[in-house]
Amino acid sequence: MTAQQRESRRLSTRLVxxxxxxxxxxxxxxxxxxxxxxxxxxxxxxxxxxxxLIGGLISVVPNAYFARQAFRYAGxxxxxxxxxSFYRGEAGKYAVTLAGFATVFAFYETLNEFxxxxxxxxxxxxxxxxxxxxxxxxxx
Length: 140
Hints:
Blueprint: H1 3-19, H2 23-40, H3 46-70, H4 79-107, H5 113-133
Helix pairs in contact: 2-3, 2-5, 3-4, 3-5
């Protein structure tokens, strides 16, 4: 690898780290909150707590996959890779979300649909809030 290639790779890595939100922090917080909420919901019934946990995870897991794919590359030199990973992440996110809901509705008979969907929506909103709060400072 030439010195120019190493410098280009170093700048590309720095650019990716500059624009990438702290993904582990965002999805770690969401997972902890979903688990805490489901534990706190145990007194209202095992099925309610499990519905809350599953609904939250159906939101968090596909979004984490998308974010991982979307922020793999950055910069004009990687424009095709950026576009391709973005589309791959979006398609994967929809596939995992649909598979999650289909699996739960097909096999989980004592499901509380309201709690499941409410947890899913709350986690989507929390994701937006956390990304806004922890956005990279250099992007301002």
